[in-house]
Write a structure and sequence with these properties.
mainly beta, five-stranded mixed sheet, four-stranded antiparallel sheet, 18 strands, 0% helix, elongated
Length: 241
C-alpha cells in the first residue's frame, strides 16, 4: 500500500509461453486434473523433463512460466544459453489433440509470449454428467490399426435435405484413447429431414467426423452420418482411410 490508500501494482513477467486451456465439454478452464510437463530438447527428436521450472496457473486459468523469463537488460548480443523447450498438458480425462507433441518455445525470452489457446478434448474416462447422450465407439484405419489421439467432432447434419432443429449451429468434441475408443457427447438435437409427405416419424440426424491427425489440417479423416437410433450401447466403428 502507498500513502492515501492507493494500491501499488506489481508487474508479473509471464515467461516465453502462455497457454489458455479450455475444456471442450464445458467451454471453461478445466477443473479436472491436468498436469503441465515442461521439457527441453536434447536434439534428434529427444526430450528431457525440466522439473525445476515453475508452472503458474493464474486465476483466469492461463498457464505461464515466469521462471523462464529473461531479464529485460541483457548483455550486447542478447541472452545466452537459449534452449528449445516445450510444454505438454497431460490428463487422464482430457487430451490436447491439436498439439499432440506439445507447444514448443525458446527460453529464456524477453518477448511478450503469444497466447496459445488449447482446446482439451474429452477422453473416454471423462466424467460426463448422468444422462448425457453419448456415442460410444472406436476409430481405426482401414487396415485395422487403432487410432490413438484422433479428434472427433459431432454436429447436426447439414445439407439441402436437412433442417436444423436448433440454432445456432453447434459442435461437440471428443478424443480417442490409446486403444482407439471414444465417447462423444451429443447433447443438442440433430437435424430432421425436409418434409417428404410421409407420416413416418422424423429421424434425428447427426454428422460425426474423425480426424487421425488433428494437428495437421487436411490429414486423413472420415465422416459418417447417423441417427439418434444408432446411438445405443453398442460400439460404433469409424474407419479412416
Amino acid at each position: 500500500m502507498t500513502g492515501g490508500g492507493a494500491i501499488d501494482t506489481v508487474r508479473v513477467v509471464p515467461g516465453p509461453v502462455c497457454l489458455v486451456p479450455e475444456d471442450a465439454f464445458t467451454g471453461r478452464p478445466p477443473t479436472l486434473r491436468v498436469v503441465a510437463v515442461v521439457e527441453r530438447s536434447l536434439g534428434g527428436g529427444r526430450w528431457e523433463a525440466e522439473e525445476d521450472v515453475r508452472v503458474v496457473t493464474t486465476a483466469t486459468g492461463a498457464i505461464v512460466l515466469p521462471s523462464l523469463a529473461a531479464p529485460r537488460r541483457t548483455a550486447p548480443g542478447g541472452p545466452h544459453g537459449v534452449r528449445r523447450m516445450r510444454i505438454r498438458l497431460l490428463s487422464p480425462y482430457l487430451l490436447d489433440a491439436e498439439h499432440p507433441e506439445g507447444v514448443e518455445f525458446d527460453a529464456p525470452s524477453t518477448t511478450v509470449p503469444p497466447v496459445t489457446r488449447v482446446r482439451l478434448y474429452p477422453l473416454p474416462a471423462y466424467p460426463f454428467p448422468p444422462g448425457t447422450r453419448l456415442l460410444r465407439g472406436r476409430v481405426r484405419r482401414t487396415w485395422g490399426t487403432d487410432v490413438a489421439g484422433a479428434a472427433l467432432t459431432g454436429r447436426a447434419r447439414t445439407g439441402d435435405g436437412y433442417l436444423p432443429r436448433v440454432l445456432p449451429p453447434w459442435s461437440e468434441y471428443a478424443a480417442t484413447a490409446a486403444d482407439g475408443r471414444f465417447r462423444l457427447p451429443l447433447r443438442r438435437p440433430g437435424s430432421k429431414p425436409r418434409p417428404a409427405g410421409q407420416a413416418a416419424p422424423e429421424p434425428e440426424w447427426f454428422t460425426v467426423t474423425a480426424a487421425a491427425e488433428p494437428a495437421h489440417g487436411g490429414g486423413p479423416e472420415a465422416t459418417v452420418h447417423l441417427t439418434a437410433a444408432d446411438i445405443s450401447g453398442t460400439e460404433h466403428l469409424v474407419e479412416i482411410p
